[in-house]
Structures are given as structure tokens and as C-alpha cells.
Amino acid sequence: MTAHPARPGDHATEYGSVRLSNKLFEQLSGFIHSEVGIKITPVKKVMLEGRLQKRLRKLGMRSFEDYCEHLFSDEGRSGELVNMIDEVTTNKTDFFREPVHFDFLTSRVLPALMKGGKVSAANKLTIWSAGCSSGEEPYTIAMVVKDFMDADGVQPIPFQVIATDISRRVLEKGQRAIYEEEKVVPVPAEIKRKFLLRSKNPGTGLVRIAPEIRSCVSFRRLNFMDGDFGFREKIDVIFCRNVIIYFDKVIQEKLLNKFCKCMKPGGYIFMGHSETLFGMDLPFEQAAPTVYRKIQVGMGRK
Ligand SMILES: C[S@@+](CC[C@H](N)C(=O)[O-])C[C@H]1O[C@@H](n2cnc3c(N)ncnc32)[C@H](O)[C@@H]1O
Fold first, then answer.
1. Is residue 208 annotated as a catalytic residue, yes or no?
2. What is the mean pLDDT of residues 189-217?
3. What is the rounded distance in angstroms from the CA atom of residue 50 to the CA atom of residue 64?
4. Number of domains in the chain
């Protein structure tokens, strides 16, 4: 790695306000697009600059030239890339985000899958939280499904939630399963009582997800840009909410086609409230606003 001398206008005298030139912005945003799929338009240049300045400080670098040279090298791809991804991904999430989806899951999706014999005592229900961020979504799913299975009159079946994200930092938080009390405000009281544990030390303001829920959720790092997602099992339900908005149409359609290949026919996919599959050539039918069902062979499209 070679250190470039500072150029006039390249960075300000203050260490923390290094500037990203338009040329380097284009190279960096192109690199991010090909590695992660995320489209960073020129209006977001200042945001990218701000987020990556933290990395420059951490690495003791004084220019984006140095940073990019390092990042684009073999050494950078196997090391710094992970840290860069932590900075450029947007990880906003919540427990019970877009709660109508969880009502639809228990009132329509689970009964349909169980009635149709798609899932059973011998055939575990598999749900994928794709782009799970720090765990709020997969834990919400697991708590809702466990609560459903616990209800009188339901013949419970085993289930698992696979939680994946590209950001190592959020996956580590998800694995810890510890959250600030303010974060769990949207969790309904009964679910809180059953599945959230208060710290023995009341001053911490933290809660932890109960072991019976944690054991149903497995976290792993997965990049949607990878050719093969490597699942052994076919997926019954995918939650991919508030993720594809960061991708362009071409990548969105490719990704949805890959999701489709991972799913069982008759499986469901939940998208974020501002995301649509409209105009894409996919074997899905709409089940509800922002919820789609994979068409079963021989059933044709509606
Ligand atoms: C805004 S969060 C959505 C979290 C959750 N699904 C929800 O709706 O609350 C988007 C997540 O997608 C992840 N992501 C972005 N690009 C990705 C990629 N190429 N592969 C896997 N995950 C990605 C980000 O790291 C981020 O945690």
C-alpha cells in the first residue's frame, strides 16, 4: 500500500474531513455495485464520504486514493471489504415492523401450508429472513410462529428461521440477541412476557431473547450477489423486506428469480411496503399487498 501525498483540495487540514473526488466516487460506487448490488447515486456522495471517513481514520489514512488502492487490492478484498460493507449498508429495522405481515403469516400463510401438508411433523417449516439486519425481524418471526404453534387446537410442527445478511456487524448483534428496552416497545405484552428476558441487573435497560426462540434462529453471512445461496432445504416462506429498494431493477429481477428457485411451489414471499414485483417476469401470484405466492406447477397463472 503506497501513501499518496496530499493534493490541494484533496482533503481539508482537519483529519476528519477528507474529500472524495468525483472520479473516485464513481470508482467506489461501481465497486460497491458489483460487490454488493447497492446502487449509490451521486446525490449520496456526501453520505458515502461521511461513512467511509470513519474507516480512513481507523486505518490512519489521509486520502481516499490510499483507501481505494487498499480496498481494491487482493488484501483489501479479503480484509477491508467486510468493514466497508458494514459502513455502506443501511440496517434500519424494528421488532414487529409492518405488523400486518405477521397477522397475515398466522391467519393465512401458516394454516395454508399446514393444511396443504407442505409442512408437517416430518417436514419442518423453514422461513428465511433475507437481509435480517440485527435480528429484530427473524426474532419477531420466531416469536410469532412459536406463539401460533403453542395455541390450543394447533398440532405444533417444528420450524426454523434462517437469518442472513451481508453485514458482519449486524449479524453479531443478532447472535447476541440483546436489545435495549426501547427497541422492544412494539412487541405485544403477551409475547414479551413469554419470550423476552429481563436482565438480572435492572439498571441495564436491556432484554434478551429467550433461549427457546434463539434456538430456532440461525444467523449466517450471505451476499445476494453470490451465484448460489447454498441452502440444503427448500424454503417455505421468505421475508425480504426493505432490501431490494437499494438495488436497481436488473438486480432486483435477478434476485427474485434466485429466491424463486430456493422456494417450494406454493411458498410465500413478503416484501417491504414500498417494494413491488410489478412488471417483473416471475412465477408469483399476489396473495395480499406486498405478499406473493410461488405458482405451483400445473396451476397456471391467475
Ligand atoms: C434496511 S435493512 C432491512 C432489515 C429488515 N429486513 C427489515 O425490514 O426490518 C436492509 C438489510 O439488507 C442488507 N443487505 C444489503 N445488501 C445486501 C446484499 N447484497 N446481500 C445481503 N444482504 C444485504 C443490509 O446489510 C441490511 O441489513
1. no
2. 95
3. 12
4. 2
